[in-house]
Design a protein that fits this description.
The chain is α/β, with parallel strands linked by helices and about 350 residues long. The protein has 12 helices and 10 strands. Helix content is about 35%, strand content about 15%. Strands 1, 2, 3, 4, 5, 6, 7, 8, 9 and 10 form a 10-stranded mixed sheet that branches.
């Protein structure tokens, strides 16, 4: 394992960019060790995991999510970053959930809102949760148990169930059938990335890797962080025994999400992939994405950001590039990763 020196603050790239107001109780201290929470298999409150939620202009969804989190037997501390909502979200959260720690940046920080929240976390593990997802009772405890026993494991990603149908999200097949190999002690298939809405992560690992990159904002932002974690010797795993339920929000712009996702895929490619694979990946995307205005916008935005991307470019070593290439080939047939909408 490489050095474990902790970075000062995962939110540092945005220092001074947005004033942040906070409400509710102060963060709790770390336990004396990762295993100092309740004994595995218990059913009472569990102080090892903090849940982090980001939201923007989706008041009904986030209130439903917070209600479900409040009812969990683990009774986790919850931190909400309201990304400058204009629909009264922050006031509603403060009124209905006074026990929740509420952060209110002046700007919509996207995924970096999670960085602000993690900077307040004082538990060994952090569970990410979107404003339209909810953790199944017992999953946070099991995740903490698994991480307690595996000090080189950075994150565990849960099985995602779509509501109200009760069907598995199509991405679950991709997680379950991951082509990557890993050590025998992993609790499930080795992963090359994770889904922020369905993952419990070791807090120190998140901070060490720098959190979510502010340049990507939102949309596929997990891939860069996952790659940087692996580069530092951490492992990621899918665990089907963990479950999160997804009540897909009706107030989402699928086209805007596609533009951001494709732009960020291109930026990640040029930030971390070696030259030849980066060129190959870019050409493949140019050939295979829909030939429409959304794709043109995505490529245009990616090109506009190329100067900062090239300044921060830091290609991965060959062993990690081999894993990225294997994932890329596998994802080309995935029904869960289509740049459409």
């Amino acid at each position: 394992m490489k050095d474990r020196a902790r970075r000062a603050d995962a939110a540092a790239p945005l220092a001074g960019a947005a004033a942040v107001r906070t409400t509710a109780r102060a963060p709790r201290p770390y336990p004396s060790s990762p295993g100092s929470g309740p004994a595995p298999g218990g059913d009472g409150p569990d102080g090892r995991v903090t849940v982090v939620v980001i939201t923007h202009d989706r008041r009904p969804e986030v209130l439903r999510t917070l209600s479900a989190l409040r009812d969990l037997p683990e009774r986790p501390h919850v931190i909400v970053t309201d990304n400058a909502s204009g629909d009264g979200t922050a006031a509603a959260v403060a009124r209905d959930f006074p026990e929740v720690e509420l952060l209110r940046p002046a700007l919509n920080l996207g995924a970096v809102g999670r960085n602000l929240a993690v900077a307040r976390v004082r538990t060994p593990y952090v569970a990410f949760c979107d404003d339209d997802t909810r953790w199944e009772p017992g999953s946070l405890r099991l995740a903490a148990d698994l991480l307690d026993r595996r000090p080189a494991l950075a994150a565990v990603t849960a099985r995602i169930v779509v509501q109200p149908s009760g069907e598995e999200d199509p991405v679950v097949a991709e997680l379950r059938d991951s082509p990557l190999s890993g050590p025998a002690w992993l609790p499930g298939p080795a992963l090359g990335s994770f889904l922020a809405a369905a993952t419990v992560m070791r807090t120190d690992a998140f901070v060490e890797a720098g959190g979510f990159h502010p340049g990507l904002w939102l949309g596929g932002e997990e891939e860069l962080l996952a790659t940087d974690l692996q580069r530092r010797g951490w492992w990621l795993s899918y665990v089907p025994g963990l479950t999160i339920h997804h009540h897909a929000s009706t107030v989402r712009d699928s086209t805007a999400r596609r533009v951001l996702g494709l732009r960020n895929t291109l930026w990640f490619t040029w930030l971390r992939r070696p030259l030849v694979p980066a060129l190959r990946r870019t050409c493949h995307l140019a050939r295979t994405v829909p030939r429409d205005l959304a794709s043109a916008r995505a490529f245009g935005r990616a090109l506009a950001g190329l100067p900062w991307v090239l300044r921060q470019r830091d290609p991965v070593p060959p062993w990690l590039e081999a894993r990225l290439a294997l994932l890329e080939r596998s994802r080309r047939t995935s029904t869960a990763r289509r740049y459409v909408g």
